[in-house]
Amino acid sequence: MENIFLQGIKTPQKVLVFGDYRIYSDFETFKEYKLGDTSGRALASFIKRDGQQEETSPLVAEFITDIDAEKLDEYNQSFLKKLSKKMNVELNEEINSLQDIADKVGGDLDDFKDYTFIGIDESSLLNVRAYDLEEAESLYTELAKLTPFDNKGLLKFSKVFGLPFGVSEDVVDWGQFETNETPVTIPVALLTRFHSELMYYRYLFDMFKNVKLQNIEELKRREDQAAKEVYELLKKMAEDVADKTGTTISGFPDMETGIENLRKNKIGSSSGEKLLLMEKQTLASRLYGGKKKLQIELDFDHGKFVPKIYFFDLFEYAYFQIMTALVNDAELRECEYCGHVFEVTYEGRRFCPPLPFRKRSSCEMAYNNKRRKENAEENK
Predict the structure, then answer these.
(1) Are 89 and 228 in contact (CB under 8 A)?
(2) Contact 151, 76 (CB under 8 A)
(3) Could you give the 3-state DSSP secondary structure of residue 279?
(4) CA dist., res. 247 & res. 249, Å (int)
(5) Whole-prediction pTM value?
(6) Pseudo-torsion of CA 160, 162, 163, 167, nearest 10°?
(7) pLDDT in tens, 260-300
(8) Do the beta carbons of residue 27 and residue 167 sit within 8 Å?
């Protein structure tokens, strides 16, 4: 009998999605809100403490450099500048500063508010919906579509799935949603924390995608880039040493030979099989970022013992979905409309799965509408 990872597991939680979300540049307006049993003032203190205790995830320079700085608005320019003061970058086991990237973007650091955040307001409580977390089969692939620093995209995503990450606090009577289990309820999130979490998630998801699609070309490109950067760094260090000693790099033949051997032998030297193995090992060691822990309990349901699992936010569940997809060897396929990957749950699926509260795939409907318009134009 085939062994399916955590077969029969129950994910009993619901996710609460509020009627609206907005970006706040300070706490003053938010403090006046009355939000169920808590208040805007209480939530403001929670998120301020969250920022003061911030432990940022490692970021990936390779991904950040793909961001088009010219497309960032003034707010996000300042945001990236602020991040450069607070975070380090992890790339090929070397730690680099974000400052060079931030300098390309510009922006006045003094204009950036320390606690800019996304959250709900009082009117959001008038229209709260809930969906079953275990039915959000497209969550982990949809989350990977988000772009760091794109707050409009985050707002759009949150109106469908709920805020993925932030301060968890009860602001509504969740008993009205016919559940005895504590739902995922996130009314507010500090943007610096969210975007750092998203960047790390995108980094791991790209690694996951490379493994599942066996994208050897991308792995070779990344290895070449890393080797070239190390070569240039070592060469510069050697030249600095030579300059300080009043000679040239040729005066250190062993060093010069070693650096040139690195350039000749390391760039493009690994086989595809070896690169894929290294990618799998790295993914396995970093998937939960060293801090995400599964909360599993035992339940007795319909005469059987079954595991029951809980999550604090949507990132945790998305990581769990990635882990499950890896262990169960799920198939990934590119959507014929948006081009992003999705998990194939039945053979004929060609588009991203339906989103919560929707019965049909948004990508499939958009694809069909596009085809109808094209056919109409051809028949004119």
Answers:
(1) no
(2) yes
(3) helix
(4) 7
(5) 0.77
(6) 170
(7) 655 555 555 567 888 888 888 888 888 865 556 677 888 88
(8) no
Q: State the pLDDT at residue 60.
A: 43
Backbone φ and ψ for 235, nearest 5 degrees, come out as -65, -45
Q: Give the pairing of strands 117-119 and 129-132.
A: unpaired
Q: What is the DSSP string of 225-251?
A: HHHHHHHHHHHHHHHHHHHHTTS-GGG
Average pLDDT of the chain to the nearest whole number: 75
- Looking at the chain, list the stretches that DSSP marks H as alpha helix, in order from N- to C-terminal side: 28-31, 40-52, 61-64, 74-86, 99-105, 139-143, 151-161, 191-213, 216-244, 253-266, 272-286, 314-327, 362-378
Using DSSP bridges, classify how beta strands 129-132 and 14-17 pair: parallel, antiparallel or unpaired. Answer: antiparallel
- Whole-angstrom distance, CA of residue 142 vs CA of residue 70: 25
Cα torsion angle, 76, 144, 60, 222, sign: negative
> C-alpha angle 4/6/11, rounded to 5°?
130
Q: Which tokens belong to 169? A: 């606090």
Which residue would you say has higher pLDDT here, 333 or 12?
333
Backbone angles phi, psi at 273, to 5 degrees: -65, -40
Tell me the β-bridge partners of 94.
91
Q: Which residue has the tokens 């990450």?
A: 165
The string of DSSP codes covering 9-28 is -B---EEEE-S--EEESSSH
How do residues 50-108 score in pLDDT, each as one tens digit?
665 554 444 444 444 444 545 444 544 554 444 444 433 333 332 233 334 334 434 33
- For CA atoms 41, 45, 51, 55, the dihedral sign is negative
DSSP label at residue 67: S
So where are the chain's domains?
14-211+292-330, 220-286, 331-380
Enter the tokens of residue 185: 């309820």
CA distance 339 to 344: 14
DSSP letter, residue 109: G
